[in-house]
Amino acid sequence: MDIGLDKHERILAAAGRLVVRNGLQCSMAAIAEEAGVATGSLYNYFDSKDALVRGLYDRVAIEMTEALVAPDTDPDPAQRLQNYFARYIDFIWEDENRAWLFNYLEATPLISHGDAADIFAPLVQHGRALIEAAQAAGAVRQGPSGLMMSFVRGAVRNLLKHRRHDDSEFREEARREISRMCWDAIKA
Fold it and tell me: pTM here?
């Protein structure tokens, strides 16, 4: 149980763990038990499983936005984009459960595409702006910025998902190589 977290966060953390383990077959009672709260108390925070699922999307989007939409004062748009790749790699690697949850939510859409687009809009817009600035500087090939960023983020998630099965330490050299592969895939 996540003792230091408030009830709302404990419920979301518990729901995230159970969704990763069991998919949406987990009951609200099981989520409440995992969170260490009464089932009735859970309903004070989320009036339905749909609301709880929406809360999971919101939580992941907030965490991603906080970690990735960081001000970067580097004057070089290409370097800002490469800095973003490094932060994204670290973000996906640092919390295995969150990475699996994000993969699950993306692969098994539990809300409408429009709702997901609204929830992740700040992150998506930031990624597109980074690509477009690098394109304007001639550092990145021309093409749809959203598609390019989706390609890179998906490649990172997929590669790290498989990398977790490797028992060796995930060293800085591997992080740099993944970042370089991201860059090589879109550079001009």
Answer: 0.88
